[in-house]
DNA sequence: TGGTTTGCCGACCATTCTGGTCGGTCACCG
DNA sequence: CGGTGACCGACCAGAATGGTCGGCAAACCA
């Protein structure tokens, strides 16, 4: 206690740093970049986190905390449109508060392999698909698309001070992308695939 | 002429380079990075494009060509669901062939300000909204979300050799995100959202 | 009041990375 | 055989990198 201010500052730093790490990866994000992003000098930033690696570790830890919170809040809702809706809504809410950290969380899934610098495990997928191996391809595509939209939109909203104004639209967009829009308890019969192009 | 091979190689280089430039920006993408991505030595790459700036210029030029092609193919279809469908379809098709270049094209719109290194004009928005100033916010959010999904999904598909298998799903996802969902001339109006309860 | 702590900075340093050059090798072509 | 073009390793000068150090001003505490 007695140090709420310090903590607040640090959290701001962490989120901005996370945004940079998410887009550029650890190696391509310099301490100077982060310092600029948070409005400190390099030395000033290194006063909060003595080392780039320490900073990164703190960022990852914070992101993991966030992920755990989401997973926790989701409980063990059975898979289905209702779970999808709740999941998207809580994820958007979390992301609107910490867009950078969520972007970092989603980065490995989103840019799956664009360059092999995946910062964190690909657990996020599991929120929407139980087993990425057996899930129908369409579901995978849609989850990925929804994540992409979620990450980009929350970041944009945050950075333009539109978080409250855009919330419902972001949720709607992600939900539609996910495809769980239509009637509750739909007959989830995935159309038979014309092309069994599997690996 | 007589150099179709050279051209083919160069195009491969351009697309991969574009992908890197899109994610990291010009400054944070080294010649070595591009060389690695295309499987050449730095000197070998600089044999194709004598300078980093020349390479970048070539990339941008190619991207612009692509953009022009899309705009052209779209003609002057009146705004509306039909135009949306056609636009998404042609964009996806182009993007499946050149995911990196399209990502670069979309980059300024997508990471609008994450870091102010916008490589190309934000023209792409105009494909779906006539005037970003007067357009309803929901439309903007949805277009942005659709773009994000488009860029990420085509990149992923290309990089996993699923371009043909995923095409229809990508189109569907983007279309749903856009909100102009239903099949040709469907009456299925965007169903009104029930009160989004808080979590 | 004065002493101490805290948050932050400019200047600096050794090391790495950068864009780019140069000379050379190898395959192909006439 | 002598080009020619694609490609590479080694190299270079300058820039960027992570990190240190001494200092300064404001807040805190006595």
Automatic annotation (TrEMBL), chains A, B:
One Pfam short name: TetR_N
DNA-binding region: 30-49
Location of the HTH tetR-type domain: 7-67
TM spans (from-to): none
Keywords assigned by UniProt, alphabetized: DNA-binding, Transcription, Transcription regulation
UniProt GO molecular function: DNA-binding transcription factor activity; transcription cis-regulatory region binding
PANTHER family listed in its UniProt record: HTH-TYPE TRANSCRIPTIONAL REGULATOR BETI, HTH-TYPE TRANSCRIPTIONAL REGULATOR RUTR
Descriptive protein name: Transcriptional regulator, TetR family
Species name: Trujillonella endophytica
Source organism phylogeny: Bacteria, Bacillati, Actinomycetota, Actinomycetes, Geodermatophilales
């Amino acid at each position: 206690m007695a140090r709420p201010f310090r903590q607040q500052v640090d959290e701001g730093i962490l989120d901005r740093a996370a945004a940079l790490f998410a887009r550029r990866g650890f190696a391509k994000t310099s301490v100077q970049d982060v310092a600029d992003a948070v409005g400190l000098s390099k030395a000033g930033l290194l006063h909060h986190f003595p080392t780039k690696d320490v900073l990164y570790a703190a960022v990852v830890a914070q992101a993991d905390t966030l992920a755990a919170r989401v997973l926790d809040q989701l409980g063990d809702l059975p898979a289905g449109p209702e779970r999808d809706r709740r999941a998207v809504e809580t994820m958007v809410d979390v992301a609107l508060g910490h867009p950078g950290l969520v972007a970092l969380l989603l980065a490995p899934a989103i840019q799956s392999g664009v360059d092999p610098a995946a910062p964190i495990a690909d657990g996020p997928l599991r929120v929407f698909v139980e087993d990425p191996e057996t899930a129908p391809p369409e579901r995978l595509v849609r989850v990925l698309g929804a994540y992409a939209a979620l990450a980009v939109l929350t970041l944009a909203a945050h950075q333009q001070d539109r978080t409250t104004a855009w919330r419902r639209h972001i949720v709607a967009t992600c939900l539609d992308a996910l495809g769980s829009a239509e009637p509750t308890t739909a007959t989830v019969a995935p159309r038979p695939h014309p092309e069994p192009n599997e690996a």
